[in-house]
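Loading example: each entry is read as two labelled lines plus one structure line.
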Amino acid sequence: MSYQAPIKDMLFVMQDLAGISQVAALPGFEDYGLDTAQAVLDESARFCQDIVAPLNWEGDRNPSSFQDGQVTTTPGFKQAYEQFIAGGWQGVIHPAEYGGQGFPKLIATACTEMLHASSLSFALCPMLTDGAIEALLTAASDELRQKYAPKLISGQWTGTMNLTEPQAGSDLAAVRSRAEPQADGTYRIFGTKIFITYGEHDLAENIVHLVLARLPDAPEGVKGISLFVVPKFLVNADGSLGERNDAHCVSIEHKLGIKASPTAVLQFGDHGGAIGELVGEPNRGLEYMFVMMNAARFAVGMQGIAVSERAYQQALGYAKDRVQSRDLAGSAGPVAIIQHPDVKRMLLTMKAHTEAARALAYCTAATSDLAHHAGDESVRRENQALYDYLVPIVKGHSTELSIELTSLGVQIHGGMGFIEETGAAQHYRDARILTIYEGTTAIQANDLVGRKTVRDGGAVAKSLCARIAATEQDLLALGQEDGLVMREALQQGRLALEATIDYLVANAKTQVKPVYAGAVNYLRLAGLVLGGWQMARAMLAALEQREQDPAFFDAKLVTARFYAEALLPQAQALSASVRTSGATVDRMAVELF
Amino acid sequence: MSYQAPIKDMLFVMQDLAGISQVAALPGFEDYGLDTAQAVLDESARFCQDIVAPLNWEGDRNPSSFQDGQVTTTPGFKQAYEQFIAGGWQGVIHPAEYGGQGFPKLIATACTEMLHASSLSFALCPMLTDGAIEALLTAASDELRQKYAPKLISGQWTGTMNLTEPQAGSDLAAVRSRAEPQADGTYRIFGTKIFITYGEHDLAENIVHLVLARLPDAPEGVKGISLFVVPKFLVNADGSLGERNDAHCVSIEHKLGIKASPTAVLQFGDHGGAIGELVGEPNRGLEYMFVMMNAARFAVGMQGIAVSERAYQQALGYAKDRVQSRDLAGSAGPVAIIQHPDVKRMLLTMKAHTEAARALAYCTAATSDLAHHAGDESVRRENQALYDYLVPIVKGHSTELSIELTSLGVQIHGGMGFIEETGAAQHYRDARILTIYEGTTAIQANDLVGRKTVRDGGAVAKSLCARIAATEQDLLALGQEDGLVMREALQQGRLALEATIDYLVANAKTQVKPVYAGAVNYLRLAGLVLGGWQMARAMLAALEQREQDPAFFDAKLVTARFYAEALLPQAQALSASVRTSGATVDRMAVELF
């Protein structure tokens, strides 16, 4: 149940697919080329593999526990978190100005993947802190930034996102927590927040809650929500910790997975009001929170890839070790089960989907770097549009895949997969939250259809299709057999995607409910085809560079061909479902269920 | 978290799809028509809903526990089991000659579905007893039958299947347990058996273990395995219980799901040898065990349908109750989430797959009745061949579906789905064993390809395709729009299935590994298309009989159309994957992973 960071694949993706040289050419990123990436990845892998990964199973067996308002994390988590801070890992992506290391998102993404693969439960704490940092840097006053950002970026304090309330899950318009202005410019916060990841814990000396609440006389709905920073311990003018704030954990959840990550119910203001400070302007809280959420959505997509990789490594190890039944082609004695065609098919499915999803996510990270740092405004704008289009796909597609792939991981183990001590079941349970939190797959898909596809008439989506078509041409020009097989499958997939985009754009206004009934399958279609595109590009690289590393590139070639033959054909079914079944879904009256 | 047996759908399937009138026309089944079925189903539903279903969650929270060789089942299980015995439910399908009720499998199958939907963990005990009864009645001497069958059929004793050993999972050729002949005609059994469902418990006074072991000088491999009956307590000549036998539970497993069902490690012969009696002839144990396994495989398929139905009911209840977000078409306030297109799509997916799988399974049960009881030998033979073809599909397809559908059940609950107390996660965990035990999906699929498809040159498979084509003609003749949509999708699916059968038959001998790499997707393809066929037949019935029950038949019509539009298109992808990716799977050398 150990974990080996797939550094070779990560570097291949960075170099050949995500364009690290382009990123390293951006102003301020001159030192962050492939050599730096390799050094950082090696260092990150050591920390993750040696310190965090061994805690994953322990976190499941011995989850965070709650007593008298206190949460005690899994034994070993506190020491690992101390080393996480000492290594500066919280600051990788954050600005040097506040003590961070200012790495490109492309490199930071690989570090993120490793940390999540090592332990989803552990990595959630830094992930939420990242979101809090990003929201503060985007929206808070300079004073608030100075007060909180350095200690969050160092990891000395951690952050949380407080959105959900019992009656307000996906629908933030229903938020009821309220903020009362005080004479000193602060606010008193009152309300109950649920599902707060690391809302209480013993890893750090302070917890910085970012809380959505309503000011008196605020408008109804999402336009009346403001964002407040509410620390567990108040912060004195000199930066030292002051009084305990009136924000208390009243319970944590008993969950299917990620059990070491405490999911808190937080009560604000039961003893006179929790003191908070307004972040940015009143009533713009949701907008600021979306800054956190977009970063977090991408990170949850990485969680999907990370847990799929971990499950794959575990299943692969078992399949190589476990000897059972004769070879179908007729060996005398029993063989390792990896020799059995269906086990191999399952492993290839895990490998192909995981590598494709990784490539797509890293390319998405690179668009973020270009969107923020390119000198040319049109390049920034173009990449921001690509990033906005791709984030819901990375989130929705990678996490939906992770459920399927961790399930295959269990299946490869046979009966042992169902026994908890084997560890395969933990990945299956852990993965199950990923399609739900930070916006369910349907929320991602509705965003993808409405704001990201229909609003611009499908322009960004079609621009990606045009780039796919160019890759098809490259494959055709090469004339190599594997490439021609890929080209055919990719073309069919791309045509299915184009037809679907056309359908959505043409009907979104007049056939609202039928169109949105197809949103999730459109998201999955886009993820499947864009993943296939990345595998096609990887195949081109493999055909060109095979001699440099025959084992790596042969594996990439065969994996890509498998993607073309076994996975890409699902594109037609997804497209057909989107284009034909929406009206039928709408026709099914609630009473008929 | 209550359960309502879907009696209306069950009776519809029996009458309009599975041909209960044909079954009731068989010799000995004259009293088992629709009226009897309705009465039995009503009675079974009362018992299952009121007594068993409420224990399901308790069984998860308070699983079977092990101490000092004893297993204590979940509080309430013992009382429920007493009522199960008192109701005569163990005997439903077994011969009146031994105290059973002799019902057709078609009717018994509905009772089975209800019991499993109420609690998979509880229902496993009777399911294993069924298998033991069937093996004894098929293979044992009259004396052994008289000794064990009546008390198993009454439920006073329970049965187990002891196949698996640490080194012998799917590969029974590796069984090492041994049997030493004694002077008195009995045998001393030695060995370790693992994964023994209800191998130890406190529900009944005796447990009848059926154990695979090797006689001295038996041939290697599966042809040297014999079957023994090894009771927990020896049975005196007068039928009373004698000494404790040397068969002891040494531990039970800590599992992902079905936690109330104790999964035992049994040690035979650590204290001088467990006394067993040979069932049937030496070295034919595997053949006899297959009798149990075929019944059990069908029953596990029913478990898949049952847990899918239960998860659907739970998700439907939540979706109707939970109010969140405005209607996309523009309501003022928030609406129940069932109004949201993607939630409706998920519910329809659950409903459509579950109904299709139920119809296919009940039709399969009817072929078993015809195979055993038809007067005409050619009818018996034809139906036996159909049954043999369909069992691995019912097992493999229904259980694979149950993983997807229980996952949708979690998703519909959003964040609450991840909280154990909600109960949705339990179905997701429970379902995960179903594709593994009683033969993994790959084992089912290899059987389907080798013995059930290739061996007869695809004759049985093609005979089903011909019947599908006839249904297409009926839909065409009707000329109704829903029917024409279904006809087109069904035809495309059937053609994909035929092409796949042709590929398998043509290549199974020369391309062994590539062909078997496609086995699971062939099984899923067959399940998808045969399920679609049943939905097409249901649609015909709905169009003809609508006036009799507009709400029921309108729902059936829309559900069937959804199956045609949203689900059946996957047939092409599955077929393409089988026909093209096998060689690529084979090409991926183990070292390349």
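Residues 143 and 149 of chain A are 10 Å apart (CA to CA).
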